[in-house]
């Protein structure tokens, strides 16, 4: 066997593997892709599933969802001081009727996770309302009255502060060391581990809910956040400006 042929065999195998991998990647099924219509709602850019708009298959559902989304955004616009509000309005929202796989509202901080699962990479850096009906669900509203604020807080944390912001990390680590997130009251009255204990990202979003509006975990409001987690309260003051309590 010639020297050239011996060297070529591994190369051919490598090229074949690369071609197969490329083929599999290029043929990956697209899951939940839509062609949204861009709308301006209360100053935010919202990419809306056309099925929810006038003439769409789910127009009535869309009217309810868009009305409730506007309600959420109106409250945020009232609650936030001018400077952070300007930055918050740069965060974009993607609203679809019903994603075939994703159910919870979420923020997508990176494209790779989306691409690996066949999801639309245009969701990158957007708040994703995966199921329009969740916006006007009574159960969801009782449980998560500030859900849009929560997800926009994730976007703000990522795109404005940066997920490695030292002040957020210090406040989160301090709360974990003190153990103040381990046993708290849920809005139902039961005692649970605070969702903020998950990581520093959820800590920031949960504290934002309590500081600016109302959370579903204790501390529920700003005064309770101040007493329960003084370092978290000061972080919120620095990021969002003065609260109703000092």
Task: Give a written overview of the molecule.
The protein has 246 residues and is of the alpha/beta class. It folds into two domains: 37-143, no CATH class; 164-240, no CATH class. The chain has helices at residues 3-26, 59-79, 82-88, 111-116, 138-143, 147-161, 166-178, 200-212, 222-228, 230-240; strands at residues 37-41, 44-48, 92-95, 106-108, 126-129, 184-185, 191-192. The strands form two sheets. The protein has a five-stranded mixed β-sheet with strand order 1-2-3-5-4. Strands 6-7 form a two-stranded antiparallel ribbon. The longest helix has 24 residues, at 3-26. The protein is globular, with a radius of gyration of 22 Å.
Q: Helical segment tally? A: 10
Roughly what fraction of the amino acids lie in strands? Answer: 5-15%
**Residue runs with pLDDT of under 50 for 5 or more positions:** 1-5, 11-26
Mean pLDDT: 92
Order of helices and strands: HEEHHEEHEHHHEEHHH
Summarize the structure.
This protein has helices at 3-26, 59-79, 82-88, 111-116, 138-143, 147-161, 166-178, 200-212, 222-228, 230-240; strands at 37-41, 44-48, 92-95, 106-108, 126-129, 184-185, 191-192. By secondary structure, the protein is of the alpha/beta class. The strands form 2 sheets. It has a 5-stranded mixed sheet with strand order 1-2-3-5-4. A two-stranded antiparallel ribbon has the order 6-7.
């Amino acid at each position: 066997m010639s020297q050239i042929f011996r060297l070529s065999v591994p190369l051919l195998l490598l090229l074949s593997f690369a071609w197969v991998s490329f083929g599999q990647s290029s043929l990956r099924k697209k899951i939940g892709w839509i062609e949204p219509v861009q709308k301006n709602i209360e100053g935010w850019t919202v990419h809306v599933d056309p099925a929810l708009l006038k003439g769409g298959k789910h127009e009535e559902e869309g009217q309810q969802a868009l009305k409730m989304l506007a309600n959420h955004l109106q409250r945020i616009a009232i609650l936030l001081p001018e400077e952070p509000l300007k930055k918050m309005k740069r965060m974009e929202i993607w609203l679809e009727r019903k994603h075939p796989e994703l159910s919870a509202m979420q923020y997508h901080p990176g494209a790779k996770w989306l691409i690996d699962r066949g999801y639309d990479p245009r969701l990158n850096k957007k708040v994703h309302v995966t199921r329009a009906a969740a916006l006007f669900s009574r159960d969801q509203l009782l449980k998560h009255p500030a859900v849009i604020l929560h997800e926009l807080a994730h976007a703000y944390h990522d795109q404005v502060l940066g997920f490695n912001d030292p002040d957020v990390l210090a406040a989160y680590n301090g709360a974990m060391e003190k153990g103040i997130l381990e046993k708290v009251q849920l809005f139902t009255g039961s005692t649970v581990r605070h969702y903020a204990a998950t990581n520093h990202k959820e800590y920031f979003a949960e504290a934002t809910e309590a500081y600016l509006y109302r959370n579903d975990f204790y501390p529920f409001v700003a005064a309770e956040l101040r007493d329960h987690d003084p370092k978290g309260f000061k972080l919120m003051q620095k990021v969002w400006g003065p609260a109703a309590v000092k």
